[in-house]
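Worked example 2:
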Amino acid sequence: MIEPDRDPRLVVVVLFGGRSSEHSISCATAGGVLAAIDREKYRVIPVGITTDGAFTLQSDDAAAFALDSAHLPTVHDNGTRILWPDSASSRTLTVVEADGTRHPLAEIDIVFPILHGRFGEDGTLQGMLELLGLPYVGAGVLGSAVGMDKHFTKTVLQHSAIDVAPWICVTTTAWRTDRDAVVARVEEQFDWPVFVKPARAGSSVGVSKAADAASLRTAIDAGLAEDTKVLIETALVGREIECAVLAGRDGGPPRVSVAGEIVTPSGTFYDFDAKYLDPDAASLVCPAELTDAQVAKMQELASLAFLAIDGTGLARVDFFLTETGFVVNELNTMPGFTPISMFPKCWLASGLSYPQLIDELITLGLETAR
């Protein structure tokens, strides 16, 4: 008896959603990947994590996760449950249907975790995949953890002689213990305005601009609603420049894209609404108008920053271009990945299409696992 040919495509688990405040942005990113991934090369299994942490089998329909400002996409609990391999010697992914029946889905070749924020981009999920022995796309445990925590990102970059904006870190305990002392410290160290950011959140969730002591108190309360510590940073004057990084092949140096620029109206900043809900609030210009020398310096700093946090796979590096040069604002180890996001736009301007970029990330993930 002749057995039917086995499906030669690599099995890719696209993992998205999650418990963080960036759940909907993760879903929108997954929608972009589901729409663009090469179906002749990859068999895709969409696994969505609900806001309370249930792993579910989701529809392989990119339109179901389209970003709509009136209705942000979410992972709905459809009653299914995903069972991961029970040991590092197995790669069988199993689904338990809503009626309780179970059946194997496929042998996993690689996981593409498109999660933003805590419990997905911070090393926790990466640790789970490491324990299971499953190859995955993106930064490892250490790079994810360092890149997620803005305080430690800045600490590592500063130790590597890379310029960052001056900051202080305030914990929930310190804020509850003596609010007046925290405000006094900010007033002593910084001029107004300052920015307040949750240490471990992205997409500008919980970020506020404070112009005085009263608004600072409100901003810290808002930031600590998202995390147990916040960063308070001096406001820098300069252009907002971003670039995309891919790890090098076979141990080679990181590859850095051309620059993109975020242009916002005077007096505003690139908050959550400007990023995802209001198409007129900001413009993404790529490539940005920079001199060859400026591009070269930006690419050098981006590569150094990527290596400093033990980056693998990909990252977006955000800068302020000030009168004295580039200052690193943040690194994002799983940046927004919709077709109109800055990360793919920068690579498109550098000669790499969106489907090619997905293919390259999968290749890098498989290479790292070897």
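Residues 167-234 form a domain with the Dna Ligase; domain 1 fold (CATH 3.30.1490.20). The radius of gyration is 21 Å.
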